[in-house]
Amino acid sequence: MRPALAVATILLLISAGAHAEGDGANPPRLIVTVDGENIQYRLDRAAAEAAGGVRILVELAGQPERRAIIHAEKAGALLESGEIVAESGVTIGTRFGVLAGEQLTLNAQTDEFRLQQAQAGVNLAPDQPQSLLGYIFGEEIGSTHEVVYILRGRITTSDRRNPEYTLQAKHIEYYPSRRRFKVKGAAIKLYGVRLPLIPNFSFKIGMGEDAGLIPTPGYSSTDRFFVPYRFDFSGPDAPLQSHLTLRLTQKRGLRLQSDNTYLGNHWLAEGLVSQTEDYYDGLDRHIVLDRRPELRYTRFSASPQQDTGWAGSLTLANIVEDLQTASNSPDARPNVREQSAELSLRYDWHNNQRRAGQGEWYSVGGRQAFYSTGDSYRDIALTAGVGGQISTSLSGSLALTHHIFGGQTPFLYDAVSIRTELQPTGRLQMGPKWSLHANGRYDLGEANMHDYGVELRHHDHALTWGLRYRSASSNLGLAVYVTGLTGDTPPYEQKHPLNELYHQTQQELAAGKPEP
After folding, report:
1. Cα distance between residue 54 and residue 109, in whole Å
2. Which residues pair with 424 in a beta bridge?
3. Coil, strand or helix: which one is 477?
4. What's the predicted TM-score (pTM) here?
5. pLDDT digits (tens, 9 = 90+) for 300-325
6. How many of the other CB atoms lie within 10 Å of CB of 30?
7. 50-68: pLDDT as tens digits
8. CA dist., res. 370 & res. 368, Å (int)
9. CB-based contacts of 446, cutoff 8 Å, min separation 6
10. Nearest Cα to 185, choosing from 173, 175, 177, 193?
C-alpha cells in the first residue's frame, strides 16, 4: 500500500470513530479509503482531495455487502460527515449494480446520492447464476431512503443500439429490496412505436413475474375476443400489495378480479374478490365463481419462498358458483351460494426444484373444509415429482399426485376431480429463436388426458413472444415476456459496455481494498 493511501485510510478511520463517539451512539464504523495520483489533506476541515485516477472505497465495518467503489478524475471527501463529491468520468459500483455519470454527490453515512447525466446497469436477477442487467438512462439518477429515482429517464433490458422496447417516464422510482418500480408519466416504445400507459402505476419485476406492461389480446370459447389489463395500486415499499385485473371481453363484457396481499416474514394474508372468475376442473366442467370475498391467512415455517418446510392456512370464503357447461357428472350442482371455512397443512421438500422443474421434489398435505350447509369435506394429497434436461434440446418434468378424500361439498370447484393424476411438462428448443412448451393433466384411473396446454415461442433478443392454447377453455392468446425475467425464459448474453463495468466492479467489491 502506498504511504499516501495509508494516511488517508487512517485519517478517515479516526474521524469516523470520533464522530460516532461525539454523537453518543455506537453505529457501524464508516471506513473511506481514498487513492489517487495527487492527494491533499485539509486537517483543519477534516477533508481530503484527490485528482488523477481517483479510487474511493466506502464501507461500513463488518458489513461488506454495503461496500461501494467510486472511480473519477477528481474527488473530495469530508471525513466527519462522509460526504463525497466526484467529477469527470464518475463510476459507482455496488452489489445492486453499476452507475456512470459526470457529477456525483454522495453521503456515505445515509447511502443517499445524486448523479448527473447518468446511466446505470441494475442486476434484476440477483438470485440467479447469470446476471441480467436492466439499463437505466436519465438526466439524474439518485437515491433517498433506500429508493433509487430516475428523472426523465428510460429503462430496458435490451443491449441493442435500437432496443426492441423501452419504458420511458418523467419520474421512475426503483425499490431494490422489493424489485419494484413506481412510474409516473410513462409510455412504452415498442419496435419504434410509442404506446402511452396509464399516468401512474407500479410493477414488480423478477424471475417468474409478469410485468404486464403490454396488454396482449386473446380468444376463448367463453369470452370470444378479450384484452386483459392489470393495475397495481400499491405503494412500492408498502407491505400491503393491491392489484386489479380487468378483462374486456366481446361476449361477457367487463370482468374483474381484485387481489390484496399483506406479506410478513413467516406469514401471508390475502383478500380476493372476483366477478365471473373462470375455473376448469380438468374434466368437462366450466365453473364460474364470484368470491365475495375470500380471505386467507397462511403461516410458513421459514418464509413464503421456503424450499423445505411446512405451511398452514385458514381460509374463509363467501362463494357464488355457477356451472356453465353440460356435464355427465352425477354430482353437478349449479347456482350454489354458500360460506366455507377451510383448514390446511402441507409439508414440502425441495420446493425450489419444483418451481424450476429440476431435480426431485415431494409434498404431503391435507385440508378439511366446513360449509354453512353443515357438510364437510377432507382431502389428503401426496405428490412426488422429478425434472431435468433430457437431451441438449429437450427438458421436462413429471409429477404424480394421489388424493385420499371423503365427505361432501356443496361446491364443484374445491372437489377433487381426478383421484390419481400425472402432470407432465416439456420444453423443446427448436433452434436459437424458437421453442415449444407443453403441459397437461393425465387421469391414470380413466387413462385420459383431460387438459393440456401448448405454447409456441419466438425469442427476439430481449423480448420473447408466445402463441398459446389451452384445451379446457379453448383459449388462444398472445403472450410477451421479458427474456430472462418473466415466463421462465432463459437469460441471454448481454454485451452492453455496462456489463463489463458491472462485472469488473463486482470483482473489486469482493476484493475490498486495493492491492499494494
Report:
1. 20
2. 398
3. strand
4. 0.77
5. 999 888 999 999 999 999 999 988 76
6. 22
7. 888 888 887 777 777 778 8
8. 7
9. none
10. 173
